[in-house]
From TrEMBL:
InterPro entries: Adenyl_kin_sub (IPR006259), Adenylat/UMP-CMP_kin (IPR000850), Adenylat_kinase_CS (IPR033690), Adenylate_kinase_lid-dom (IPR007862), P-loop_NTPase (IPR027417). Catalyzes the reversible transfer of the terminal phosphate group between ATP and AMP. Plays an important role in cellular energy homeostasis and in adenine nucleotide metabolism. This is adenylate kinase. Keywords: Kinase, Nucleotide-binding, Transferase. Monomer. It is an enzyme of class 2 (transferase).
Length: 246
């Protein structure tokens, strides 16, 4: 009955949308399956490149934070367990997160593969992920490391200022406002996000180097790691990504 209802509802979908979806699916059917992990510190450009890769290869984008919140909201068995841990102020266990990723891989949108962003952060998580994928008879194809010097990141991130009402963003070096500290359009003051200060960035980078650099070594030993020059402009990084995924 559910399928019949879905079919009946097709009448209400504009032909243009149907055609574009059919064309997208035809294009996707010719693409090779890819299972990718993006690794890199905050501000390294993962967020810029992941939607491009996702669309190009018809992959699903798995951001573990969003997935955890969705599982909790949907009250799935794993979501209920995750909520119990969060309510106690505990970290959600690695096994639970891997279980939520495992569930997500059943979705039709993940049929051609996935991009994992923000996970694994530790070698233990990487090992658990490999075990889960092995049970499915699949493995990670490529790990893209957005390598960038801390000093460049600091300049990139701490120079960001936004106009909170409109979301317009500026950069003191790369895209400065006409008048320092003031929005070009309204003349209202700009603010800096809490996460964009030097102190917050320093602690996040320390955590990245301590926890996640061993993960980069872990995948390097498996010969599936590609180091990208993430300090380059987005178009050049995009070209490097495309070359790595050939």
């Amino acid at each position: 009955m559910g399928d019949l209802v879905k079919m009946a509802n097709l009448d209400d979908i504009p032909s243009v949308d149907l055609m574009s979806e059919l064309l997208r699916r035809m294009k996707c059917s010719t693409k090779p399956d890819k299972r990718l992990i993006l690794v890199g510190p905050p501000g390294s450009g993962k967020g810029t490149q992941s939607p491009i890769i996702k669309d190009e290869y018809c992959l699903c984008h798995l951001a573990t934070g969003d997935m955890l919140r969705a599982a909790v909201a949907a009250k799935t068995p794993l979501g209920v367990k995750a909520k119990e841990a969060m309510d106690k102020g505990e970290l959600v266990s690695d096994s639970l997160v891997v279980g939520i990723i495992n569930e997500a891989l059943n979705k039709p949108s993940c049929h051609k593969g996935f991009i994992l962003d923000g996970f694994p952060r530790t070698v233990v998580q990487a090992e658990k992920l490999d075990e889960m994928l092995e049970k499915r008879g699949i493995k990670v194809d490529k790990v893209l490391n957005f390598a960038i010097d801390d000093a460049i990141l600091e300049e990139r991130i701490t120079g960001r200022w936004i106009h909170p009402v409109s979301g317009r963003s500026y950069h003191t070096k790369f895209a400065p406002p006409k008048v320092p500290g003031v929005d070009d359009v309204t003349g209202e003051p700009l603010i800096q996000r809490k996460d964009d200060t030097a102190a917050v960035l320093k602690s996040r980078l320390e955590a990245f180097h301590r926890q996640t650099e061993p993960v980069i070594d872990y995948y390097g030993k498996k010969s599936i790691l590609t180091n990208l020059h993430a300090e380059k402009p987005p178009q050049e990084v995009k070209a490097e990504v495309q070359k790595a995924l050939l």
